[in-house]
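Worked Example 4.2. Read the sequence first, then its structure tokens.
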Amino acid sequence: MTVESAAAVLTPLPEIRVDRLFRCAGQKKHLTQRKIFITLNRAKRAYHLKQALSVKATYSTADLAKLFDVNESTVKRWSDTGDLECVKTRGGHRRFSVGSVLRFVHQHKFSAPLLSAEGIKNENLRVHVIAGNIHKLAPDLKEEILAGNVNGALNIVRTAFAAKPSFLEVCSTVVFPPLCEIGDEWHAKTISIDQEHVATNTVKEALTLFQSEIHHKGPNGLKALCACSEGDLHDIAIRCVGYYLETEGWHVTFLGQSTPSKSVANAIRTHKPDLVALSATIVENERQFLHRMNNDIHPAASRMRARLAVGGHTIRARFGNRLKADHLCDSIAEFESIANPHNYKHRKNGQNTARQSA
């Protein structure tokens, strides 16, 4: 098949850059059938995905009444009480941004399946999302992050959240699976390191934008320290934990990737957190890891009467009682109970005494 004949197949699809196919060919006048097949399918998938996940910039009162299955007067009442933020046009009509709608859904624990599926044209995907099967969005998110499309990734996360308004569940069900697949593909050398970096940074940008859109509770007076253990460069999971804690009213200090254990211990003494959350996604030397955790970090957290939570894949089975910590977390979802402020009320007096003496 020639490049020209392949390009002719693409012309019915608007917004597809046909010149990309020519760049793929380089100086060659012909492409292999396999190369043409892969290129065409990627182009078509990108186009249909963009159409499937187009989200409105703003919604009218009538739009939201239909999507929430309520009367327009109910939407206006939500707006008048300040629960649902809006702006008014010159004609006095209310307009609701995507961010304000997501904050409302999150704050009031609404499940809005019709809102989540509102922009989805693919009927099969639409049915799954309405039913709450948000894991079906993971393959589409993988496509977007590999392409470096922050807005596309953000829209998919928004869609998942509208169907299941739980930040931790969206992360564990929609965000993490494609990242794990991309990591496996990089190890298998089927994708390059630059592709893996593009995907990782796209996810980080999309999650940062999304976190700023959803509802944040007022300050609860609790502080958390989040970091990756020494040698661990995978910080997306611990970032998600930090973002979640911030939406719950915590003050979060994030130390970043591969933080030396003595630096973590020093930060505990400096910031005096109520919770220390550490990511141990990659542990290459178990003996060294246990020594650092049990001799540097755990004693520092204990002196400040701070809870220590260590997360990572199969960390319970791998370390069990050998690792000194209050919580060993195989899943990010466990932080929903760990972050509950009621778990820390009885510790306040003891913490204040320890901090004053420190």
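Now turn to a second chain, presented in exactly the same format:
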Amino acid sequence: MFSSLKNRDEISFDLLGRLHRLLEVVKKAANFDRWREVVDVYLNFLMILSLDCAVVAIPLLILACFRKSCSPLVAGGFLMLAICFDTLCLLLPREFGISSFHWNWEGKILSSIWPLIVVYGFKWLTAKEVGLNLPDQKGWLLGLGMGVFFVVWNFLDFLVRGDPSADVHPNPAMNFMFETLLYQFTMPGLAEELVVRGVYLAILNHYLGRQWRLFGASFGWGAILVTVSFIMSHIVFFSPTKNQLIFNIEWLDIQTILLCFSFVYVREKTGSVWPCVLFHNLTNVLSFAFTWVLV
């Protein structure tokens, strides 16, 4: 009898031990801390996405009431879908990719590819609407000239005030200098211009039209809305290095506002996103270079 009880106790302890080991394996495999970080990232991006959508949705709703038309609401619906999809393209590779790079190369590459799929795969928008056609020589010179102008302005402003966004720039001691320069010279301008002043602007122009002219460029509410949305996305953003939301209010000044509206002006004036890509990346890479050289 005692032997039987002893055997049952041993079996019970053995089962408890196996169950404990199984739970440890499950916990290790699940990596709860990692998933908690992922959830935090998603919540932060959801907050940014909500702000971005609100910045565009509220004016479109007001515009629909004034025009007594559903076109602004239809444009808003398609735009929200595009914004959500682009956010996923930027977020998912960063969280589940295998890259050891500091910058989000995978996300930006995906963000650069999906507008091309929309145009050439689904043929939902035309290449001309998105601005994929190559500009003439004057278009390239306009993009280059605007880039040089703002680079010089940024350099002089930096000498006078210092860099207000230096706290979010990578430290050159972290050995990311080469990667950062290469990334800034290629990815941000390519992805953001194809998406923001490519697809987003094409959607809004298609439904809202371009009823004004300024300095030889036709533009409408779409140019204003994508620019305001673009500014907002750079004031409130998620920092992967700090794993938190950054409210970079100091980034908002007259230079930044003029820079962002200059992007959309070049896009509407030339009818192409490619001078904007040159303009955008030139200002990015030289701004980072100035920060490292002069700090």
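Notes for the reader: The chain has eleven helices and four strands. Residues 60 and 73 are 6 Å apart (CA to CA).
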